[in-house]
Amino acid sequence: MNPYEVLGVSENASEEEIKRAYKELVKKYHPDKYHDNPLADLAEDKLREVNEAYDMLMKGRSSMNSNSSYSSNGAGSGSGAAPDYMQIRRYLDANNLAAAETLLNGTRDRSSEWFFLAGMLSFKKGWYDDALNKLRTATEMSPTNAEYRQAYSRLTSMGGQYQNQAYGRGYGNSNDDMCCQALQCYICADCCCDCI
Predict the structure, then answer these.
(1) Which of the residues 101, 111, 186, 195 has the least number of beta carbons within 10 Å of its own beta carbon?
(2) Quick check: helix, strand or coil at residue 76?
């Protein structure tokens, strides 16, 4: 996903042009306009894509402006080139996990952004424990970053949601669902004994 293409602006667009395009697209795809409309799901997906593109562009611009260790051409002031986090994000969005991993592994800078992106890569690979640890580290390194906190919160709530669903079906301490428990006993007995 090229965020500039999603917002319909050129790559050398000013911040004001990006904000203006974003506001227009949000108005265009706002859920209130698609209430009881068969295109509501499509508009919701498009709005999510617009929000992600806008966040990506604004975050990239703010990190480039605030990070004084990088020069304007992206080369670091010290050893090696600056990490290309925007490219890593593009690879992750395109599910090109091998390319994202290669860039991450080649990056010496282990900033909060690195841990966040490495956590998202682990999540996409299905390595939830590793993703949780890396997102926790990113959040601890930059506690004011809403994107990191939100991703970490979502991942921890996913685990809790699964646990609650499982407990509600007789897999935990809940004794509410007798039918499920009876079926569990039957399946266990069937596995242990061929006479059932």
Answers:
(1) 195
(2) strand
